[in-house]
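Fill-in record for Hexosyltransferase.
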Amino acid sequence: MTAKKFIDTRGLSAFRTWVNSINGKVMFFSSEGSKSKYGVPVVPLPGVDDSYPPQKKSFMMLKYMHDHFIENYEWFVRADDDVFIKGDKLEKFLRSINSSKPQFIGQAGVGKQEELGMLSLTATENFCMGGPGMIFSRETLRRMAPYVGDCLANLYTTHEDVEIGRCVRKYAGIQCTWAYEMQHILYQNYKEDQGSFKKSLKSTEVENAVSLHPVKEPVYLFRIQNYFQSTKILHLHHKELLLQRDIHLIDELLGSPGYTFNVNRLALLPSLTKYRPSEADDVISWDFMTKPIFSHHHNNPKRGLEGSLSSAIDDVINQIMQLVNKNARQRGRTLDFKEILYGYKRVNPLFGADYILDLLLIYRKHKGRKMTVPVRRHAYVQQSFTEVEFKEEIPTYELHSNMGAKVLHLFRKFAVGEEQKTVYDKRQEKINFVMPLSGRLKIFERFMRNFEDIFLKTGENVKLHVVLFNSEHERGEDMALEKSISLLQQYQNKYSENSVEIIQASGAFSRGRGLELGAARCSSDSLLFLVDVDIVMTRYVLNRIRLNTKQGSQVYFPIVFSQYYPLTVCHGNVNHCDCHNQECFINPQDFSEETGYWRQFGFGITAMYRSDMLAVGGFDLSIQGWGKEDVDLYQKFIESNMTIVRSVDIGMTHAFHEIICDSHLDPAQFIMCKGSRAQSYGSHSYLSKNVYNTDTLLSQNEKFILNVNS
């Protein structure tokens, strides 16, 4: 049942989602003169309007179903247009009930608390709530439909579902089912009374329900449809897995030749010992879980549960509880999940994800002596992988760089207000590179060669602002300041001063002050990219800088790849390196674990608008020397209403340089500096092998352990 204004919104969404799952006929009943522009099967009821409450509409649609389809169908369902119905579950449910008898099935209601005694219902009378659906057997409709006119002429309330229940009770001699389970079968979402199931759909109620109500926003019908299609795919994969195991078991029982030599990995039964490592390095380690998760192979050994892992564990718990409560009614007990006390998890890329969980459950006994007690159970779970499935797509990297922008330009008419600035315009926006520098001439020359090759020679819309510090220390460093100025002047003469700007600063080097000086030369609407001299870039970073920043709402903090010490990487393994004249450099596009790590704790490289930088207060100019100023700015953006885009960027590589930590630094800066230096020595596997292969280090470690234990 719908209204004229909802036919091509709610009605159309239902028609394109759950209606296709119904093994029968679905029609949308509306007022006289109603029709759809998109082929929704509408029945305009003569003499019926869209006035609320829709009592006449509700009764007339039942009469229409009786007059046109009474001999063609066993069951008739009346529901609102903001419902989602699972056709397969509905059919399975109704097949289990005798349709030749008068049946009136729904979620029983007696009215709201404030309406009790005002609906002309006795203490033993009820009605079926209209929203999640009323189900009539053929016999029920046959008995009550001829008296629809009489029921309409004797209305006691304004509630159409109450009056239909009264009519069925009077002329069919039955009333709505009192069954407790109906509130779970035809599910009314009281948690989101005016919502649309916007929260997580991973719940027992949603999974087991036949209908879900209400879905006020039509677009969420597609979300629900997509979720149930994905769960159906999972069930089919699981069924395939069980069939593979059955085939393997039958082959084994029949003694089929060759079955022991060609065992499909999908056919193996769940086990934590499917994979047997042949070497120590092949052992797959476990992560330990309590509130946080602990793992030795992660850059952050103690961290909170990631969203993907949390979702996976929720799925595992739901499946465990479904299994343990499968025969709960026959056993007279149920187990409810309380919490995970601790657990272990690992992922085997060949077989699946393994979990060992210590669960706290609530045991509820319903038969005999009733009791409720907490119990602990260990669960050994394996989420088995199935065969790999993939779909080939056109490689996007072969397309012209502006093609995507031109396609997106077509959608500019959908923009409103300030968002009318198109993606195409955004890709042409000027980027102001701001870089403070003190000494380091050789590294600066490399940076300028890289900047020239990918930005200046190609005519990109960029400008480099270099802030040179003129400190007493740097004056004696082989004339680094004078040579840096001379180098920049050469680029100015070659590409004009609009491409490169020289800014001189006095006093001790301060990265925060240098960035502020460079940013001050730009207007408030300028897009800034704060960069270090050690960064090696590709031309693709420009689009990411532009598209990941929005003035007044979004800033970009890329995660760059930081290289290890070249001597540790290139020693005995030149595949990762380019070596010339006994000097080796790591390939900046080699992102393997042996060559470096993603600097997830680095916030110094960032893109933002000058106005946004000013809005949060900019850099703390009291911070001198190495580090901390970037963390302070990042914290300011977190505390603001700005959105932070934090993502790996393969177009930026932090080339290795020796880190010197001044003992006179602020204690927090000194600790951060030492941590960064230690992180850059080499990979964990390389360092651990060196320790194990160095007897003096091993003996020192043994002495330390003995001293601690004594």
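KEY FINDING: The longest strand covers residues 333-348.
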